[in-house]
Amino acid sequence: MSSQHDVAVLRPAVPEVEVLAKASRRRFTAEYKRKILREADACREPGTIGALLRREGLYSSHLTTWRGQRERGELAGLTPKKRGPAPQPKNPLAAKVAALEREVTRYKVRAERAEALVDLQKKVAELLGTAQPQTGETR
User: Fold this and answer.
1) Which residues, 6+ apart, have CB-to-CB distance to 59 below 8 Å?
2) Using N-to-C axis directions, what is the helix angle for 60-71 and 30-42, rounded to 10°?
């Protein structure tokens, strides 16, 4: 028997978890798009456009889209567009309506508070035995 003891440590097989960063959409500036289009237009040899696309990490659909935008004269189309629904134009009366609604709510709260005070006064008068004239009553 050997004097050394071989101890094997058994660990459960745990798969390594790799957390990937959330992919973000690439954005190209108008100047970059124009530069790439100029370079692509200058390519005369077969395969040079493919080499340009590989070097820049682009797809041929980028060139197609950018060329169409350039032909239509969409200078704003060469810059990245903001995604999502277009914002609705603000109604100039909306602020006035909101202010009036807040005022109505404030007056309703005051009216409810006043009614509660009147009811309290009636109950106190009943407890003290002094009768208060009801609304619409005459002495």
Assistant:
1) 53
2) 100
Length of the chain, in residues: 139
Distance CA(12)–CA(15), nearest Å, equals 9
Round to whole Å and give the CA distance between 126 and 139: 18
The pairs formed by 16-20 with CB atoms below 8 angstroms and a separation of 24 or more are none
Contact residues for 63 (Cβ-Cβ < 8 A; gap 6+): 36, 37, 40, 49, 53
pLDDT, tens digit (0-9, with 9 covering 90-100), for 11-45? 666 667 677 778 788 888 888 888 999 999 999 99
Position 59 confidence tier, pLDDT thresholds 50, 70, 90: very high
d(CA 106, CA 36): 62
Give 119: exposed, middle or buried? Use CB within 10 Å, 0-12, 13-18, 19+.
exposed
DSSP 20: P
SS3 105: helix
Q: Where are the alpha helices (DSSP H) in 3-93?
A: 30-42, 48-56, 60-71
